[in-house]
Every structure is written in structure tokens, then in C-alpha cells.
Design a protein that fits this description.
heterodimer; A: 260 residues; alpha/beta; Rossmann fold; 2 domains; 5-stranded parallel β-sheet; 4-stranded parallel β-sheet; 10 helices; 9 strands; 39% helix; B: 339 residues; 10-stranded mixed β-sheet; two-stranded antiparallel ribbon; 14 helices; globular; 5'-nucleotidase activity (chain A); nucleotide binding (chain A); magnesium ion binding (chain A); 5-nucleotidase (chain A); Cytosolic 5'-nucleotidase 1B-like (chain A)
Chain lengths: 260, 339
């Protein structure tokens, strides 16, 4: 991987800590708690995403068995009904062969606190309200949608949106921006562990409205965070839908570029 | 009328900052290797591998690339746009030039710096980091794709996108800065290769016979017909404003067919398609090089490498359309794969 500063890499290697990703049980399993013949939950929207995160960990450890910059995946329940299904959830996770380090059986009252206590770097949910609450407390929260379900399992695809509209209702934007920037830096570092081809992580940048200068600025912003994008698309007004369908990202990040 | 005119003038600067919708514009996608000269970087890529190639690119990020074979063509498209904006300030029927490259986004900043340096109006681009850009070409409703890599061009043609491979000629003769000139071969470019097949299989006499018998039967369309059509649509916008004589777009047919015989079928077909071509040159088999040297097109499309090379020898910028029966005879000409 192209590296611009060898010295910092060596120093930072000592300080690498895991990237804690919390996913709600609703995102991991089919909504409505659909069951298979054994009474276990069926895989949902975030399933391919978890498999991709796992793939990244496997490849990171292959490159360096002593690697500490790994994804640390937590499954979290966010409401009491799911909270009571703890054994079924853990069994289903085990059955599907997913590597989850911890479970957090919270409800709607205390799940945010659990996110903070567990030092969660990225919170993934299919519930807009939950994402909003997370953002308001300064946790990088990403809303997953049905597109995530059809993403590849062999490669984690992250899409940075260079000039998306900042969600003004998300509360303290500054805190969220910092969380986004540090998460992005971690992703960038992970990407740097692999070569240009056959990487289990792929990073793309899309700017939707502005021209080439806004894309250039976004590329520079990413670079300052230690993120080297693999792909870049400057749409300058072309509808984003078809491009997103072609890129198939697991999730989108836009907070790095918000104006405040 | 006057208040409206003032309004139009006031709106114009704003309009120039918004970009035309793909369905309204004539989208021309060019790769970085044909828009600019990247031979040195290509050599690094081929000899030292991709990581070294990207390191080199980043190291030289502030050095703009020199113009490549598609550069004069792109500049001419922008000249036409300027003239169109004068006459139709609100219209989105313009050329939209998009940079489409297999390069990784690491090269992005150098490419943007280069576009800035040369004052090109390119606001859309696509750096796919190695994957096929065909999906994006389609999403952008691309009318023409120019690349240095024949494989990618072939892929585009199979998907129904007009495409051609460009090469860096040893010398590039000067071309007009005020008028876009596009020259096309006939068979297997504007038209299908059906007649060429007859010629290749049965010889010249049989070819003449076949053309005479089928004079009134239209030829089937070729891969570049749509692009000629798009050019014609823009030309009509100038004619509508009384600018036929001063039209900044001029099209040429340069064919080996002869005027008295086989050429008639070509002209009848064009007429039936409702397409006008400004000049039709029937060479009756004579070499195309000298004629092209007189025309000085910004780009010349041909399906036969023999003609492409002949044109390049005389400084004409030629683009190869790898379509039809002639490709089976082009085997000794392989372009290098890569970025």
C-alpha cells in the first residue's frame, strides 16, 4: 500500500486498538423475528456486512497474527422485547457462525449508555430514531437500509459522501464529526494493511453536487485523515442512485465533510 | 422582449455552474491516457508495478500531464459549447465531457490539477480503481467513449456504446480552433460490416455487384451512427439561427467506396436515416492519408488499423473502431492492456 510516512506507522502500531462496531439485533436478524425450523433467527439486512467485517479480520490476522487493529463486533438489543430473547439471539449467532465478541442486552432506555460504556466507534441500526439518538450523544451512527442486504460478503465496501447535506437534526454535529473522522482514520489504516488489489476493504468517494474542485477537496480531506480512496466519482448533479447501485457500499459516511 | 433578454444574461453565469442532465447532453467519455500523455507513467506501471506507479503519480502530483491525442478534440467540443451557450443560454443540449479512468483515486488530485492547468471544463469523472467502467458509462448515457485500451473499447461496443481506441501519433498536425471536424469511415463505422464481409469473402467484383443489386436497400447501422446523429442534432441548432455557413461543427465521410457505384448506396442510406454529412469523399480505394491531411479532422474513425496507421503517419488523429469482419485481419496490432 502506498505509504507516505513510515515513521508514524511504526509509532502508531503500538497504539492500535480495535474498532468497536455495535450492530442492533434487529439489523442482524430478519425484522419480525422470523424463525427457521430450529427456532433460530434468520439472517437479516446486516448479515452480509457482519460477514464482510469478519473477512477483514481474517485477512488482517493473516497478514499479521499479532494484529490489534481489528473489528470488535458487539450485538446490541435496543428494546425490551429483544432484550428478553437473549438466549435465542446468542444461539442464532453461534449457529450462523458469526464471530461476535460481546452481547449487550439493553432496552430503549439504556442502550445509548451501553454504546458509550463500550466505547463504540460505529453504531449500525435499521431504526432511524436509534441512529438519531446515537448521533446526538456523539456516537457515529449509520442507518442501514435494504441495499446493504445485497452487498458482497467477501469485501467490505465503504462509501464516503463528499458533499452530502448535513443532517441538521442530528444535534451536536461537532461530536459526531470527530467520531466520524477518527473512525475514518481507523478504516484508512486498516486499508493500508493491504495492497491495491485483492483487498478485503474497498473505499470509494462520491461527490454529488459540486464539480471537480469539491471532489479534489474531499480527496484531500480524506488524505489528511490517512484515508486513501480506491475509487472516486464526481457526479456534478448526475443522479446518485444508479452509481450507488453499481458501487454496492455496505454503508455510507458523510459526517467527515460537514461544514461545522 | 428586452426584459427577458436581460434576465437571460443575468442567469447565464449561474447556468454555467450547473451541469447538463445526461439525457439532454451529448456525453463524451475520455480516459486519462487519451486525454493526456502518460507514457512515462505507463512505463513505470509496466516495469515496476502498480504500487510504484501510484507512488510516482503522487510524487509528481503538481506536475500537469501534457495533452494527449484526444485533447484537441475535447478543446473543440468546448468551443462548440461556447457557441451553443451564446445562442441558447438556457439549453442543456451541449457536449458533456466526462473523464472515465481505471486509475485508482490516488491519481485523482494529479488529474484534477492537470484539468485546472489546461483550463478544461470537465466537472464529472469516474475513477474506478481497476473495475470496469461500463456500468458508469451506461448510467451516464455515454454517446462516445475514447480509450487507449482496445479491450475496454470492445467491451463498450458490445454494450452498444459508440467507442474507439486512440493512439498517440508521432506528430499531430495543427487543427482548427474554431470548428470541430469529425471524419468517419463508412463501412463498419457508420454502417454495418455487411458489405465488407462480401468484399473480404468474394473480392472486389462481387462487392460491386452486390452493392449495385442492393442499391436501394438500406445498409444496416454501424457503431458510430448514433454519434453522427448527435452531431447532426447540434448542427441543426446552428442552422436554426441562420449559422449554416459559420457552423462550428463539420462532418466528413471518408470512404474507399467509389462515387459512381458503391458510394450511392451509402448516400441513400444516410439520406433515409435523415442524416446530413457535410462532405462525402469517395476515394475508390485510394489511400486516405493525403485526403485526411487536407481535412485535418480533430478525430477520424476507421475500423481498419491499416488506415489508422496511414492517417497517423501523416499526423491525423485517428481512432480505431474494433468492430466487424476487419478485426480478424488486425491480429498483429495489439494495444497494451493496463491503465
Amino acid at each position: 500500500m502506498v505509504s507516505t510516512d513510515q515513521k508514524t506507522d511504526v509509532k502508531e502500531k503500538e497504539a492500535d486498538c480495535p474498532v468497536v462496531v455495535a450492530v442492533t439485533s434487529h439489523a442482524v436478524f430478519e425484522s419480525g423475528g422470523a424463525e427457521d425450523p430450529d427456532g433460530l433467527y434468520v439472517g437479516g439486512i446486516a448479515f452480509p456486512l457482519l460477514q464482510a467485517l469478519q473477512k477483514v479480520n481474517e485477512r488482517l490476522l493473516k497478514e499479521n497474527p499479532a494484529e490489534s487493529l481489528l473489528f470488535d463486533v458487539i450485538v446490541i438489543t435496543t428494546e425490551s422485547q429483544q432484550q428478553q430473547q437473549s438466549s435465542r439471539i446468542t444461539e442464532s449467532i453461534r449457529h450462523h457462525g458469526l464471530k461476535v465478541s460481546r452481547f449487550c442486552f439493553s432496552n430503549e432506555e439504556d442502550f445509548i449508555e451501553n454504546l458509550l460504556n463500550n466505547n463504540v466507534h460505529l453504531f449500525l441500526t435499521t431504526n432511524r430514531n436509534e441512529a438519531l439518538q446515537g448521533s446526538q450523544k456523539g456516537v457515529l451512527s449509520v442507518l442501514l437500509d435494504e441495499h446493504t442486504a445485497s452487498c458482497p460478503t467477501e469485501q467490505l465496501r465503504v462509501l464516503f459522501c463528499g458533499d452530502a447535506v448535513v443532517q441538521s437534526e442530528a444535534g451536536p454535529a461537532l461530536a459526531s464529526k470527530q467520531a466520524a473522522q477518527s473512525f475514518s482514520a481507523q478504516i484508512g489504516k486498516m486499508r493500508g494493511r493491504f495492497g491495491l488489489f485483492d483487498s478485503p476493504i474497498s473505499i470509494a468517494l462520491v461527490t454529488s453536487r459540486g464539480g471537480r474542485e469539491s471532489c479534489g477537496d474531499a480527496l484531500r480531506t480524506l488524505r489528511s485523515l490517512g484515508v486513501n480512496a480506491d475509487e472516486a466519482y464526481c457526479l456534478a448533479g448526475v443522479p446518485r442512485g444508479p452509481i450507488k447501485r453499481l458501487l454496492r457500499p455496505h454503508f455510507l459516511l458523510s459526517e467527515c465533510f460537514s461544514s461545522n | 422582449m428586452t426584459p427577458l433578454r436581460h434576465l437571460a444574461v443575468h442567469l447565464r453565469p449561474w447556468k454555467q455552474n450547473t451541469h447538463p442532465k445526461p439525457e439532454n447532453a451529448v456525453t463524451v467519455a475520455v480516459s486519462s491516457r487519451v486525454l493526456f500523455r502518460t507514457e512515462r507513467e505507463q512505463k513505470v506501471f509496466e516495469q515496476q508495478g502498480v504500487e510504484e506507479y501510484l507512488r510516482y503519480q503522487i510524487e509528481h502530483e503538481n506536475e500537469p500531464f501534457a495533452p494527449g491525442p484526444a485533447f484537441p478534440f475535447v478543446k473543440a467540443l468546448e468551443t462548440v459549447n461556447a457557441r451553443l451557450r451564446e445562442l441558447y443560454p438556457q439549453s442543456e443540449e451541449l457536449f458533456d465531457i466526462v473523464l472515465v479512468t481505471y486509475n485508482h483515486a490516488h491519481v485523482g488530485i494529479r488529474l484534477i490539477n492537470t484539468i485546472n492547468h489546461h483550463n478544461l471544463f470537465i466537472e464529472r469523472f469516474c475513477m474506478t480503481g481497476g473495475s470496469s467502467p461500463i456500468g458508469y458509462l451506461k448510467a451516464w448515457q455515454t454517446n462516445l467513449y475514447l480509450s487507449a485500451d482496445a479491450n475496454k473499447v470492445r467491451e463498450a461496443l458490445t454494450e452498444g456504446i459508440a467507442a474507439a481506441t486512440m493512439f498517440m501519433p508521432e506528430k499531430m498536425t495543427e487543427v482548427s480552433e474554431s470548428q470541430l471536424r469529425v471524419a468517419f469511415d463508412g463501412d463498419a463505422v457508420l454502417f454495418s460490416d455487411e458489405s465488407e464481409r462480401i468484399f473480404k469473402a468474394h473480392g472486389l467484383d462481387k462487392f460491386f455487384e452486390h452493392e449495385k443489386e442492393n442499391e436501394d436497400r438500406l445498409l444496416d447501422h454501424g457503431p458510430l451512427k448514433g454519434f453522427l446523429e448527435a452531431l447532426g442534432k447540434l448542427q441543426k441548432k446552428f442552422y436554426a439561427k441562420g449559422q449554416r455557413l459559420d457552423c462550428p461543427i463539420r462532418t466528413y465521410l471518408v470512404t474507399a467506396r467509389s462515387a459512381a457505384s458503391s458510394g450511392i448506396r451509402a448516400l441513400k442510406t444516410l439520406r433515409a436515416w435523415g442524416l446530413e454529412i457535410d462532405e462525402a469523399l469517395f476515394l475508390a480505394g485510394a489511400p486516405k492519408g493525403p485526403m485526411l491531411e487536407k481535412i485535418r479532422p480533430h478525430i477520424y474513425f476507421d475500423d481498419q488499423m491499416f488506415h489508422i496507421e496511414g492517417a497517423a503517419e501523416m499526423g491525423t488523429i485517428a481512432a480505431h473502431v474494433p468492430y466487424g469482419i476487419a478485426q480478424k485481419h488486425n491480429s498483429k496490432h495489439n494495444t497494451s492492456a493496463g491503465k
